[in-house]
């Protein structure tokens, strides 16, 4: 089972993830990128852990992609 982005332990810098940006929450549009920083301090979050990507975009993780 692939992680769904709700548990902090499943996410670490360097992973490729799909996130929903704040302005895309209504549509659910996903943005793919590589995690730079974890911004959520709690161990889990029902809407996904908030992260900053290497390109500076911030959003909540909806899917963690498998390593190639």
Automatic annotation (TrEMBL):
Q: Domain of life of the organism in this record?
A: Bacteria
NCBIfam families in the cross-refs: YwbE family protein
Q: Which Pfam families match?
A: DUF2196 (PF09962)
Which InterPro entries does the UniProt entry name for this protein?
Answer: DUF2196
**Which lineage do the record's taxonomy fields give for this organism?**
Bacteria, Bacillati, Bacillota, Bacilli, Bacillales
Origin species: Paenibacillus chartarius
Q: What's the protein called, per UniProt?
A: YwbE family protein
UniProt-listed PANTHER family: YWBE PROTEIN
């Amino acid at each position: 089972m692939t992680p769904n982005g709700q548990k902090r332990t499943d996410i670490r810098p360097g992973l490729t993830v799909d996130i929903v940006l704040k302005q895309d929450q209504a549509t659910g549009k996903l943005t793919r990128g590589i995690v730079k920083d974890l911004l959520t301090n709690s161990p889990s979050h029902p809407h996904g852990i908030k992260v900053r990507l290497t390109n500076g975009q911030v959003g909540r993780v909806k899917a963690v992609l498998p390593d190639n």
